[in-house]
What we know:
Blueprint: E1 2-6, E2 22-27, E3 36-37, E4 49-55, H1 63-76, E5 77-88, E6 99-103, E7 106-109, H2 110-115, H3 118-121, H4 135-145, E8 148-154, E9 158-164
Parallel strand pairs: 1-2, 1-4, 2-3, 4-5
Antiparallel strand pairs: 5-9, 6-7, 8-9
Helix pairs in contact: 1-4
Amino acid sequence: MKVLHAGCGWQTLPQHLYPGDEEVRLDANPEVKPDIIASIDNLGDIGPFGGIYCSHCLEHLHWDDAHKALREFYRVLDVGGIVHLQVPNLETIQPTEDVVYEVNGLKITGIDLIYGCRVYSRTNPWMMHKSGWTPATLTKAMEEAGFTHIRHIATHYNLEIAGIKL
Length: 166
């Protein structure tokens, strides 16, 4: 199956989700050497794909553009295809300096989750967060884009959500 890795950055497709599938890497930043250079809210003439994976990219778009991206995902997905998204879960996050979690020695605070990790966003404007999501708001946005059978797993700071195009 061909899987669109939307907003791939330097990452590769997680094999535990897509073992043996063909990855098509898409990013707006040509420096990460994607297969397709495009923004996730304007995918152009691509597809269809059996799956779409987009991890911690949607929050970097303005709210309206994030909704456009979800509609674009729906448009380029095969019928029966699944979109799998990950975003920060802002349901219980407060804009404080309290450390929410650590990754690779980097302390991530509530402020970082809401506005974008300051270590990266102060020098790279692509890393600023322009929208925020909870299970309810992302579920509603996905439904409005046409997705069904939406399921999510939410932790204190991470939201994984998937939906199907029927």
